[in-house]
């Protein structure tokens, strides 16, 4: 329901909350996760950040300069942004990955909350950010009080919209969302997930492979050296007039050749997800697209075979396009 959102929507971050003993503990946990996310999203939130060298090449100093320049005339707080950019550059160095810089954490929690929210929004080119907090099952009365108070603090201090989903909690108005019948039916059939839930997650950035996906990163690394792979677009949205799929996010697309490549993780093996994929693929095929699906195992076990299949299809489509043009 949240991916992909319209262009006017906020950047959405999902957080799997755990019961905490105090508000500072909860807030600290969320801010640490947001800082880790900001580092992973670098340099998408810093203009010209992709040109910076590593720590040994003056990159940290240059990152601070670019961050201060970015903050000029915007809502960003320059000193915090500069330290966060330097921290991100530090973690580009494989020898520095084990280091845990605390300089950006020297700022008050209020500054970190507002600064991190703005950075995440900048990475997704969105003006606003929403934090979707999954409420734990069987939350104690004290844990519920802490969760609500912490979320209220975050909403006030960070400027993010904070949405609680799951079991109802006190002091928060409950809104029941009406979803399309087909989506509700399929969701009800989903079995409990056996894969560990990530604490913090965001949709992939448009135009590049998801940074948390080993499979997407491996495919892009291989395609980068393939001349025939030109024209590829990662994680783009395709507009559809279908009432169920207003927009569709594709893993990998060649728009001219009308080829979509989907890389399926274990969640696609459930009956409900498989049915949703079938409906989605049918919508694309009605619009002239071909959908090639590969499992994560296929990609990791025999990437050359996956690339050959994609190459054969693309070259065949291009031959047909060229003959049609002639």
From TrEMBL:
**Xref: SUPFAM superfamilies:** Restriction endonuclease-like (SSF52980)
- DUF559 domain residues are 251-314
| Coiled coil regions in record | none
Annotated protein name in UniProt: DUF559 domain-containing protein
Native species: Herbidospora solisilvae
């Amino acid at each position: 329901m949240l991916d992909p959102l319209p262009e006017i929507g906020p950047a959405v971050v999902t957080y799997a909350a755990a019961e905490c003993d105090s508000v500072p503990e909860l807030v600290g946990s969320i801010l640490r996760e947001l800082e880790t996310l900001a580092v992973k999203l670098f340099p998408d939130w810093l203009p010209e950040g992709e040109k910076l060298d590593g720590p040994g090449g003056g990159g940290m100093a240059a990152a601070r300069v670019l961050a201060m320049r970015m903050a000029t005339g915007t809502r960003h707080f320059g000193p915090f942004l500069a330290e966060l950019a330097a921290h991100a550059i530090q973690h580009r160095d494989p020898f520095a990955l084990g280091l845990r810089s605390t300089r950006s954490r020297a700022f008050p929690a209020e500054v970190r909350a507002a600064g991190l929210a703005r950075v995440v929004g900048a990475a997704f080119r969105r003006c606003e950010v929403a934090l979707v907090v999954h409420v734990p099952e069987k939350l104690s009365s004290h844990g519920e009080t802490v969760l609500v108070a912490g979320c209220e603090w975050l909403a006030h201090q960070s400027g993010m919209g904070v949405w609680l989903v799951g079991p109802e909690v006190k002091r928060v108005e409950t809104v029941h969302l009406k979803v399309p019948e087909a989506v509700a039916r399929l969701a009800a059939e989903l079995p409990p997930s056996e894969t560990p839930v990530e604490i913090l997650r965001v949709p992939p950035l448009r135009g590049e492979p998801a940074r948390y996906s080993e499979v997407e990163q491996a495919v892009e690394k291989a395609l980068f050296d393939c001349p025939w792979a030109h024209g590829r677009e990662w994680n783009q949205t395709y507009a559809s007039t279908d009432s169920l799929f207003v927009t569709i996010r594709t893993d990998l697309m060649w728009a001219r050749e009308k080829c979509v490549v989907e890389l399926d993780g274990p969640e696609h093996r459930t009956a409900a997800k498989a049915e949703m994929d079938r409906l989605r693929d049918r919508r694309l095929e009605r619009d002239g697209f071909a959908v090639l699906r590969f499992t994560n195992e296929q990609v990791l076990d025999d990437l050359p075979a996956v690339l050959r299949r994609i190459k054969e299809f693309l070259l065949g489509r291009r031959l047909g396009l060229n003959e049609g043009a002639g």
